Amino acid sequence: MRDIPFDERYLTPYDPFAPHGDNRLRLRRLRRYLPEAMEDLTERQREMVRMHFFDEKTVSDIARELEVNRSTVSRCLSRAEKRLRRTLRFTL
Predict the structure, then answer these.
(1) Are 45 and 31 in contact (CB under 8 A)?
(2) 84 vs 9, more confident
(3) What mean pLDDT value characterizes the chain?
(4) How far is residue 1's CA from residue 40's CA, in Å, rounded to a whole number?
(5) What is the pLDDT confidence band of residue 16, given thresholds at 50, 70 and 90?
(6) Higher-confidence residue: 24 or 92?
(7) 15 or 51, which is more confident?
(8) How many other β-carbons are positioned within 10 Å of the β-carbon of residue 50?
(9) Cβ contacts of residue 59 below 8 Å, gap of 6+?
(10) Can you tell me the distance from the alpha carbon of 8 to that of 92, in angstroms, rounded to the nearest whole number?
(11) How far is residue 37's CA from residue 34's CA, in Å, rounded to a whole number?
(12) For residue 61, how far is the Cα from the chain centroid?
């Protein structure tokens, strides 16, 4: 943040998920707190997040495997992401 002029630094709202030059500290914190934050998700959300982000499956693949509609998977992933952001907001 030192390369951003003082006035701009405090006029724009701080977004903890915005990219920064060196993210090593934030990644360490994310790895530490993500398992705990995942516990706040429903079982279905956890399963879909695991399949999408860790197993790298597409929304269509998940929908086919779980025998649900693609929009259901998309909506569930969106809600899970929103909940994770809310949970991890102050830890990053």
Answers:
(1) no
(2) 84
(3) 84
(4) 32
(5) low
(6) 24
(7) 51
(8) 14
(9) 52, 70, 73, 74, 77
(10) 21
(11) 5
(12) 20
Other Cβ atoms within 10 Å of 23 Cβ, number:
12
| In the chain, % of residues over pLDDT 70 | 75
The answer to whether residues 43 and 57 touch, using CB atoms and an 8 Å cutoff, is: no
CA distance 65 to 54: 16
CA–CA separation, 23 and 11 (whole Å): 22
CA distance 12 to 35: 31
What is the chain written as a DSSP string? Answer: -TTS-HHHHHHSPP-TTS--S--HHHHHHHHHHHHHHHTTS-HHHHHHHIIIIIS---HHHHHHHHT--HHHHHHHHHHHHHHHHHHHTTT-
Q: Would you state the pLDDT for residue 10?
A: 53
